[in-house]
Design brief:
Strand order of the largest sheet: 1-3-2
Number of strands: 3
Shape: globular
Helix content: 40-55%
Largest sheet: 3 strands, mixed
Mean pLDDT: 90
Low-confidence stretches: none
Radius of gyration: 23 Å
Strand content: 5-15%
Oligomer: single chain
C-alpha cells in the first residue's frame, strides 16, 4: 500500500471513529515532502494544509498515524499557528500547545514521544486549560529549575532540558504564518471558521456529534435582522405623506 492509499485508509478510519475530524481532514489539502521532519501544517494561500514527511509516515503504526492527523487538525482548529508568534519563548510555546491538544487524543493514538500531561501528574496541572495556562506554568517551572537545579519533578526536568537543548519537536512550516499582514490573518481566520462550520454541518447531517472542544472554537456570527419600516411601507402603499 503506497502512502496515498494509507492516508486514505486512515482518513476513513478517522471518519468512522470521529466524523467531525474526518470531515475536517477532507477539507484540507495534503502535500508530501521532506520540508518537515515529521508532519505539520503549512500555508496554502488563505488556507491551511497538511505537510507530511513520507518516510516518517511510513515508520508509524496505523494508530499513531490517526493520532498524528488529529494532532495537526487540533493545532489548526485551536488557532495555534497565528497565536504562536505572540509567545516570547517559541520552543516552550510549542510544548504548551502540544500539552493542550494531546489531551483530546486517546492515549493509544498519541504519536510516540507525544507530550502527555499525565506524565507530570505530581504537578497537579489543570486539565484542558488552554495553551496560555500551560505556557505560564512551564515558564514558572523553567525559572525554578534555573534557580534550584530542579523544578521538583524529574519528568518535567527532563522535558525542560529537552526544550533547552532543542530536542523537542518543532514546526518549521509555521514560520510561513509569521509575516502575515493583519488583513491576511483575518482572511485565514475567517476561512478557518468556514471550514470548521462546514465540517460541523456535514457531521450533523450524518447524525454525528460535534466534539465539545470544537464547539468552543467555532465563532457564531450574530445575524441582526433589519428592522422593517412598517410606517414607511404604509406611506408608500397608500400614497399618504407625513406633514
Amino acid at each position: 500500500m503506497d502512502k496515498q492509499q494509507s492516508l486514505s485508509k486512515i482518513g476513513k478510519e478517522l471518519m468512522l471513529k470521529e466524523p467531525y475530524y474526518g470531515f475536517f481532514l477532507i477539507a484540507l489539502n495534503k502535500v508530501w515532502g521532506q520540508k518537515v521532519p515529521t508532519a505539520g501544517v503549512s500555508k496554502n494561500g488563505i488556507n491551511y494544509q497538511l505537510a507530511i514527511n513520507p518516510e516518517f509516515w511510513g515508520s508509524l503504526s496505523d494508530d499513531h498515524r490517526l493520532g498524528l492527523l488529529k494532532h495537526e487538525l487540533l493545532h489548526i482548529a485551536f488557532g495555534h499557528l497565528t497565536m504562536f508568534f505572540k509567545f516570547s519563548d517559541r520552543r516552550l510555546a510549542n510544548v504548551a500547545m502540544d500539552m493542550e491538544i494531546n489531551q483530546y487524543i486517546d492515549k493509544q493514538y498519541l504519536p510516540e514521544g507525544g507530550i502527555d500531561i499525565d506524565n507530570y501528574a505530581e504537578l497537579n496541572l489543570d486539565r484542558k486549560a488552554g495553551c496560555r495556562y500551560y505556557y505560564d506554568k512551564l515558564k514558572q517551572l523553567q525559572d525554578e529549575k534555573k534557580q534550584n537545579g530542579t523544578c521538583g519533578n524529574a519528568p518535567m526536568d527532563d522535558l525542560l532540558d529537552a526544550v533547552e537543548n532543542g530536542e523537542t519537536d518543532e514546526h518549521p512550516t509555521w514560520e510561513e504564518f509569521e509575516d502575515m499582514t493583519e488583513a491576511e490573518q483575518k482572511l485565514i481566520e475567517k476561512q478557518l471558521q468556514k471550514v470548521l462550520s462546514d465540517a460541523k454541518e456535514q457531521t450533523i447531517k450524518k447524525r454525528g456529534t460535534v466534539p465539545g472542544e470544537i464547539e468552543g472554537v467555532i465563532i457564531i456570527e450574530e445575524v441582526v435582522k433589519p428592522k422593517f419600516n412598517w410606517r414607511g411601507y404604509i406611506r408608500r402603499f397608500t400614497g399618504v405623506r407625513e406633514p
